[in-house]
Amino acid sequence: MHQPADRRAPVSGNAGTGTVLTGGCTMGEVADTPSDFAGVVIALPEPLASDLLRWRLSFGDTGAEVIPAHITLVTTTPVGDWQATASHVRRIAARQRPFTVMIEGTSSFRPISPVVYLKVRQGFENCVSLHADLQLGPLQRILPFPYHPHITVAHGVSDENLDEAQETLRNFRASFPVRSMGLYEHSSSGVWKLQEEFSFGGKRESATAGNGPGQTNRKGQARP
Description:
224 residues, alpha+beta, 5-stranded antiparallel beta sheet, 4 helices, 10 strands, 21% helix, disordered N terminus
């Protein structure tokens, strides 16, 4: 799911201002009436999210303006019962412990898909485990490709720009704490809207950034 948007990560809570994502994905108001499709993602904290937004724009990927940096846990999936779906995600979040993600270096899904991404080095297995648990029950579906945690930095641009992204960020490195995951709904307008942000361990976070307070350690190229 090459999704989330807006430069801010989702906020905690069930209501009020949230984050929107589009097909690409955006962030805006929390949905009032859920549609028939859902997704679950890990949003990135600031300033890392904004740094990666600038890089993505510098590679000619204008979709970055409505696609905030994120790690997909569940891609676009049909939903028949939103209450059951939210309860399912809440249960999994309640038993999940916070973990650290370290991203380092680049790779690509070419030639299958015109995507260059940052590799998840640490926290990879945590994401895979969460995906496996989430993809059961109301979110169960058959995926066309094996799940592979990543952070997209260039999508749908020229081969030259994809090459540039892969080379420029090959030494990029950053780490950040993951303390929550967001359940989103895909609206009829093509926007992804936050339904609820679920803190790991069942605790409600007061932070306004998606994964709560905590330092982001970064190493890589100078900002574009």
